[in-house]
Amino acid sequence: MPATATPTVLTARALLLDMDGTLVNSDAVVERIWRRWAARHGLDGDEVMQVVHGRQGHASMAVLLPDRPVEENLADNARMLAEETADTDGVVRIPGADVFLAALHGVPHALVTSADVALSTARMNAAGLPLPPVRITAESVGASKPDPEGFLKGAAELGVDPADCVVFEDSGAGIAAGRSAGMTVVGVGPRAVSHGPDVAVRDLTQVAVEALPDGTVRLRLG
């Protein structure tokens, strides 16, 4: 189906949730840290911001500095993660995220994020949101989004076929990963619309969750 804000109903057996831009608005800190990084490397900040959302930091660096050795990107990424974890100023929940997560009690779901454990914990705590019991983080995968590995691992952890999963994402890299995994993708927020999700919502206030007796979950979107 085309991306739409028109009321839509989906059914699934599990939900896979991105964090940044989907549950948590961390744009303020991402902008601060990545624009400083861009300036250090003589890159245009606006162009850098078009790349970094949804990917692990070292994967973004590989796109932006293609001739730099992987080892340098990994070391730089470790420094960036430490900066991001320490800076939670302006990190807030996406509207409706608290109600949405509360509605998932008893529904199979997982966090699938390009952040590592420390960063995801810091940002979810800063936004006042509970961490899902199943979490696929940067440490869990060998390849960053847009590779589908994270979403496929999330489905496997939950024991659900990928085709029965619905992904919630905001970035181009994340939406591509969800589609590559063979999952239905709900795009959250304005950034998502141009990247071809199956359905788009303004924020999580436009998502209603209903657990059904047969173990599936019904999502009313829009």
Terminal CA distance: 14 Å
Strand order of the largest sheet: 6-5-2-7-8-9
Pick out the low-confidence regions.
none
Largest sheet: 6 strands, parallel
- What is the percent of helical residues? 25-40%
Give a nutshell description of this structure.
This protein is an alpha/beta fold. It is 39% helix and 19% strand.
Keywords:
alpha/beta; three-stranded antiparallel beta sheet; 222 residues; 11 strands
Describe the structure.
This protein is an alpha/beta fold and 222 residues long. Helix content is 39%, strand content 19%. The chain has nine helices and eleven strands. It has a six-stranded parallel sheet. A three-stranded antiparallel sheet has the order 1-11-10, with no helix packed on it. The longest helix has 17 residues.
Topology, please?
Elements: E1 8-12, E2 14-17, E3 24-25, H1 27-40, H2 45-52, H3 57-64, H4 70-86, E4 92-93, H5 97-103, E5 109-112, H6 117-126, E6 135-136, H7 149-158, E7 165-169, H8 172-180, E8 184-188, H9 190-193, E9 199-201, E10 207-211, E11 217-221
Parallel strand pairs: 2-5, 2-7, 5-6, 7-8, 8-9
Antiparallel strand pairs: 1-11, 3-4, 10-11
Helix pairs in contact: 1-2, 3-4, 4-6
